[in-house]
Specification:
Elements (H helix, E strand, L loop, with lengths): L3 H14 L10 E5 L8 E5 L1 H10 L5 E3 L9 E4 L6 H4 L6 E3 L12 E7 L9 H9 L8 E9 L6 H4 L8 E4 L1 H4 L10 E12 L15 E8 L2 E3 L4 E2 L8 E8 L4 E9 L1 H11 L4 E4 L2 E4 L10 H10 L7 H8 L3
Length: 326
């Protein structure tokens, strides 16, 4: 005979899986109620949140083309870019090289989406558990982003050219914990320890930053640069396209980010989906010709075209994105 908790869990999982294949917007969230002595599993129909997530599909996709940004424009949904590094860094955690010789310039994001608090209910279970353990879940304190970058310029090759070790880059939470700084400044704006971790990754890219756990790293914004040289992960230009979640939190900010990191072929496919434009070539890198025109109107249109693309259809990165809208 099944135990009470097993029976409740079975019922919950059955209810939570109904219509998932049809991308139902009546979202189902399963939560562990640890306050009860018998640790019952409960499943709630998140009807209000599901309607908010559904309405997000009509959010328009726009783009910003910063002065001097010759390579790419950044497609934006419900957010704006920070002023850092020429106005091209999103207000969230990003991948950014910091080789031995110098702090490398930021490679433009291809797409940045800031989601709303209703999407906390459909975050991966590992992230929800981490947030709940810290009393941060369902408090309106979590900022949720999707950040898509190419891997073309990633890898800190200078650090690995003599030993052949795997290429590395860094997780930089600076734009998330201090999003509204000026483009140029002297001295220190922010200097605190920030806890950073990787969750629900397609591959084990952990190095200094752990997988499914948090570790404290100093985050220092000073003299218009991001410091120091830490928060290393194993990822670079020779890595396959992949996705993972990151969590970064300090005493005032909780930043959750779904990262897509695309190889050159997948980057081109995404640009073909986003823009009605042609490409020029410069030093092996595709450059969007001007004038730019968006080829997608809103989030729903974007998700539909991604799902129709042989490149992205049924891939873990798109499954993670689609799961947010369940």
């Amino acid at each position: 005979m099944k135990s009470k908790i097993a029976m409740i869990l079975s019922l919950c999982l059955t209810q939570c899986s109904q219509n998932a294949g049809e991308m139902s917007y009546a979202a189902k969230t399963c939560e562990m109620d640890t306050k009860r002595s018998d640790i019952e599993m409960t499943c709630k129909m998140d009807t209000k949140g599901s309607q908010q997530r559904k309405s997000f599909l009509s959010k328009p996709v726009s783009f910003v083309d910063a002065n001097g940004n010759l390579l790419l424009a950044t497609a934006l949904v419900n957010t704006e870019l920070s002023n850092y590094y020429g106005g091209i860094v999103p207000k969230t955690t990003v991948l950014m090289d910091y080789p031995k010789s110098a702090n490398a310039p930021y490679q433009d994001s291809l797409l940045v989406i800031q989601l709303e608090s209703a999407f906390e209910a459909t975050l991966p279970a590992s992230l929800r558990a981490e947030l709940a353990s810290r009393g941060l879940l369902n408090k309106g304190l979590v900022k949720i982003f999707v950040n898509v970058q190419g891997n073309y310029d990633l890898g800190e090759e200078e650090d690995h050219q003599h030993d052949g070790s795997p290429l590395t880059t860094r997780l930089k939470a600076h734009g998330g914990v201090d999003p509204d700084g000026p483009a140029q400044y002297s001295g220190t704006r922010y200097n605190k320890n920030v806890q950073i971790g990787i969750y629900d990754a397609d591959f084990d890219i952990s190095d200094e930053v752990p997988l499914n756990a948090l570790r404290s790293f100093n985050v220092h914004l000073h003299d218009s640069v991001f410091s120091p040289r830490n928060a290393r992960i194993k990822l670079g230009k020779n890595s396959p396209s992949q996705s993972f979640w990151s969590l970064a939190l300090d005493d005032r900010h909780t930043i959750v980010t779904l990262h897509w990191v695309l190889d050159q072929a997948d980057e081109k496919e995404l640009l073909d989906i986003l823009y009605q434009t042609t490409y020029l070539s410069f030093l092996g890198r595709r450059i969007l010709s001007r004038p730019l025109q968006m080829a997608v109107s809103d989030v729903g249109d974007l998700l539909g075209k991604l799902s129709d693309s042989p490149t992205f259809k049924n891939k873990p990165m798109l499954n993670k994105l689609n799961a947010l809208f369940l």
